[in-house]
Design brief:
Layout lengths: L23 E15 L1 H4 L7 E3 L7 E15 L11 E12 L4 E10 L2 H10 L4 E11 L2 E10 L6 E11 L5 H7 L3 E6 L2 E8 L6 E10 L1 H4 L11 E12 L3 E2 L2
Parallel strand pairs: 5-6
Antiparallel strand pairs: 1-3, 1-12, 2-4, 3-4, 4-5, 6-7, 7-8, 8-11, 9-10, 10-12, 10-13, 11-12
């Protein structure tokens, strides 16, 4: 496992200051962030060429299971689409750093309930979107996220997350910033790593109590199935997001 050519950039809870022409606009709402520690050696083969696992303490990286509502996806500055652009989504994500020291996430899967956005995401951005039967329900402070895969599979892979949102976090810990303050994604494009930046306001984070977690999405993404409780459980009411155009990873 090689190292970046430069030291990783600092983790910043605030977005980059440089202006960015938006390629995509959207909002992420009612997010559940669940994270487990994993061995970087298990993560490295799953990352795009030119990237390595990003570690919090030099030895540990993480896998995230993130469930939320995508809201009104828009393209090239056009208004977001009410129906096709709004749907539940659940992601399995890893943490990466490229040769220029840029931190990002890598998606192992993105389960979504609208088929057309799934097809567009797979073809246009080469992201591993999967069509699934999904739901997000709220009762007071308790949220329930469900997902069962339809296509392309493995068919029947599922998740059910139930959590209770708690108090606002005044000052997140360094680990909580590391896991949430990510201003780009890495993906493979024509055999090379590409870098897709995003900007949004600082995350409003809440403590959360995990009431139920029954899932096999992480194992379906090629990682060891999580053992034990997550090391971090967070909730956020959400943020508006802008994605810029892709850039080469190196």
């Amino acid at each position: 496992m090689s190292s970046p050519d430069r030291d990783p950039e600092p983790v910043s809870p605030d977005p980059p200051a440089a202006p960015m022409r938006p390629l995509l606009t959207q909002s992420w709402l009612d997010l559940a962030f669940l994270h487990w520690a994993v061995d970087p050696a298990d993560v490295a083969p799953l990352l795009p060429r030119g990237t390595v696992p990003d570690t919090f303490d030099g030895t540990t990286t993480y896998v995230g299971l993130v469930a939320f509502r995508m809201h009104r996806v828009g393209v090239l500055g056009l208004p977001g689409v009410p129906y096709l652009g709004s749907f539940p989504e659940t992601n399995v994500r890893l943490y990466s750093v490229d040769g220029r020291g840029r931190r990002a996430v890598v998606f192992r899967s993105l389960d979504a309930s609208r088929l057309i956005p799934v097809l567009v995401g797979r073809v246009a951005v080469r992201l591993p979107y999967v069509w699934a039967r999904m739901g997000v329900e709220r009762a007071g402070d308790t949220l329930t996220y469900t997902s069962t895969r339809r296509w392309p599979g493995p068919r029947g892979v599922r998740s059910r997350i139930v959590l209770r949102a708690g108090e606002v976090i005044g000052e997140p810990t360094p680990l909580e910033h590391f896991l949430t303050a990510r201003w780009a994604l890495h993906t493979s494009l024509l055999g090379r790593a590409a870098y897709l930046p995003n900007v949004h306001p600082r995350w409003p984070l809440h403590r959360a109590e995990l009431l139920e977690c029954d899932e096999d999405l992480v194992a379906a993404g090629g990682l060891p199935a999580p053992v034990g409780e997550p090391v971090s459980v967070l909730y956020s009411p959400g943020v508006p997001v802008r994605f810029g155009p892709q850039r080469r990873g190196r």
